[in-house]
Amino acid sequence: MKNIYCSIILIFLTLCLYAEDGHQLWLRNSNPKPVNVVCSKTSTSLTIAKQELQNSWMGETGASVSLVIKADKAIRGDGFRIGKNAIQANTESGILYGVYELLRRQQTGEAIQEEICNPSYDRRILNHWDNLDGSIERGYAGQSIFWRKGSDVFTVTEADKKLWQEYARANASIGINGSVLNNVNASQLMLTSDYLQRVKAIADVLRPYGIKTYLSVRFSSPAQIGGLKTSDPLNPEVAQWWKDKAKEIYNLIPDFGGFLVKANSEGQPGPQDFGRTHADGANMLADALNPFGGIVMWRAFVYSASDEDRAKQAYLEFMPFDGQFRDNVIIQVKNGPVDFQPREPFSPLFGAMKKTTVMPELQITQEYLGHSIHLAFLAPMWEEFLQSDTYQNGAGSTVARCTDGSIFPQKYSAIAGVANIGLDANWCGHHFAQANWYAFGRLAWNSSIRSEQIADEWIKLTFSRTSENRDELALDWNLNFLSPVKQMMLESREAIVDFMMPLGLHHIFSANGHYGPGPWWAPKGMRKDWTPPYYHQADTLGIGFDRTSSGSNGVGQYQEPLRSTLSNVSTCPEAYLLWFHHLPWDYKMKSGRTLWDELCVHYDGGVQQVRRFQKVWDQAERFVDRDRFVDVQEKLRDQSLNALEWKDGCMLYFQKFSRKPFPYNLERPMYNMDYLIEKDTKRVGEYHH
Ligand code: BDP
């Protein structure tokens, strides 16, 4: 009997040892060659840099590498100069980033010649939407790595520290240098001393990796935890409370980054509760942080249940304050004017606020792109956004250039991504979702690298080590693994757009879960801007949201010549057609098809595409370890089913308005709509057409 137990334990241990759970991300040590690292200084960060080189060196055997901290005007911020055997930087973080860059290039086989690499944005930040009870808003990878339920949260365990260190290392390896540790829907408890002690413990682990800690704060904290009667930003006692709080935080965390604030949005408290403005609120906090070098990231994600087109509201709210914010306030703007949809045009605030620092907010967690079930590589979406031309300072005023300091004078430049990280062994829920964390870091560092390069790097770093075939059969690996898998990643976001909301459709999810289709979803009494019919506007005459001058005139917020391009139905890119126009079902598309047929072709195309992804992945089996292979295979299966629900649900629903047949060469529906609605009703409790 005892022997059986022993064997079981042994088998279990062996499985644990060899189970590939994806925890190592893109940082997979190979068999390092010996290397001699010479460094003029010593510090914790430099020791990390040294160790990383020694643990992963794949350059010349026995090479000597020098790490030099020396001021150099050509190197900006925490940038670095890299050579085959040398890294020079102004800062210790710069050295660390140089080391990771060198190792990455060795692993991926990218050329290493002497060059300077400067970051596009100074602050490259992950926003964690983690609640203090350990749950994560829109998190699909388990509980928080920072917080947990109960008073147990105040004990910092060795396991906590180990995980935070792994997290910090992963971030540093891609240049991320800031973490907001809690949800934008912030609890006032965040600023109480017990929690701040834990923040200090986290900050102490992140610091050697060059990562600053930031917190989301609740605007009503002075009244809720400070014992004040009000949280009015113009009340001197309130201002003093925040100053004292800032001092308390900086005593614990001298390099604290600053605050992130969601105010007067979706029920969060804010300055408007006291008849004050966003500028009053943000500036008051900015003054409290200023003596310590802290910044305020004030979110522009503000809209209300008014009759105004939701897509216009942030611009209307914030433009009047352009130039009125302190220079340590950064307005954090979501990439699109609505809410992280699979495709949106860029928010018109980019480039329009010329006297205010604006930072993009991207969403890494896949709230609207299939959670951690769908394979969605988001770099193409972010590339499309960052390279969009705002024309705000003439042609070539891309969103990237409008926010990175190359066009407008600004003290800071920053970019944030809502993290997709949780306690799941593989961090992100889906093995391929790791690529989005990776891509965010790479683009924040260099906003002009192409998605193709990012995918290429990520695959090589993430899968090659486990593929024993790679060295002997590099050609086979490149041809039959790297290339098709890369292609699949690059097409994955567009496939989702196709089967969920093609041609500019947006926000037609069922209920608040933001996963399945729900173009019909409109519970009685629900705010109309929270229901899909508000966004698709389908009727027997046509479909789409008219944002031209005959509609909400959302186009009016864009700069010429873009405004005219978007207004004119024949020049508006078809990808944004139904975002800006309400068009008849038989409107002639560029393909020659009617709008109705074209819509169907996209829905069907998206479904077929996911099925092709399944085939691509199945063929990759021999190159991937069993565990990750099966995980991804199963997720693709679920994605395929969900894609079909989207296609059938949306096509059948819209058909009630178009009253036209599905193009006969397309696959016929397999679900009926009532079934899908019922499924949805069970999930959300209520359905009203
Ligand atoms: C929406 C999410 C909601 C967030 C909000 C925000 O559905 O959970 O709180 O954005 O960004 O996308 O504040």
- What CATH architecture label of the largest domain applies? Alpha-Beta Barrel
Any idea of the CATH class of the largest domain? Alpha Beta
| End-to-end C-alpha gap | 63 Å
Principal-axes shape call = globular
Question: Might you state the CATH topology name of the largest domain?
Answer: TIM Barrel
Mean pLDDT: 95
Strand elements, count? 15
Radius of gyration: 26 Å
List the uncertain runs: 13-17
Q: Strands of the biggest beta sheet: in what spatial order? A: 6-7-8-9-10-11-12-13
Domain count: the total is 3
Question: How much helicity do the residues have?
Answer: 25-40%
User: What ligand species are in this complex?
Assistant: beta-D-glucopyranuronic acid
Report the structural category. alpha/beta
Q: What is the assembly state of the chains in this entry?
A: single chain
CATH superfamily of the largest domain: Glycosidases
Number of helices: 21
- Main sheet summary: 8 strands, parallel, barrel
Core attributes:
binds beta-D-glucopyranuronic acid; Chitobiase, domain 2; 689 residues; 21 helices; 8-stranded parallel barrel; 5-stranded mixed sheet; alpha/beta; Alpha-d-glucuronidase, C-terminal Domain; TIM Barrel; globular
Describe this structure in words.
The chain has 689 residues and is α/β, with parallel strands linked by helices. It has three domains: 31-117, Chitobiase, domain 2; 123-449, Glycosidases (TIM Barrel, Alpha-Beta Barrel); 497-545 and 582-688, Alpha-glucuronidase, C-terminal domain (Alpha-d-glucuronidase, C-terminal Domain), CATH 3.90.1330. 40% of the residues lie in helices and 10% in strands. The strands form three sheets. It has an eight-stranded parallel β-barrel with strand order 6-7-8-9-10-11-12-13. A five-stranded mixed beta sheet has the order 1-2-4-3-5, with helices on one face. A two-stranded antiparallel sheet has the order 14-15. Helix 4 links the parallel strand 6 (123-127) and strand 7 (178-180). The longest helix has 33 residues, at 626-658. The radius of gyration is 26 Å and the shape is globular. It starts with a helix and ends in a 5-residue tail after the last helix. Mean pLDDT is 95; it is low at 13-17.
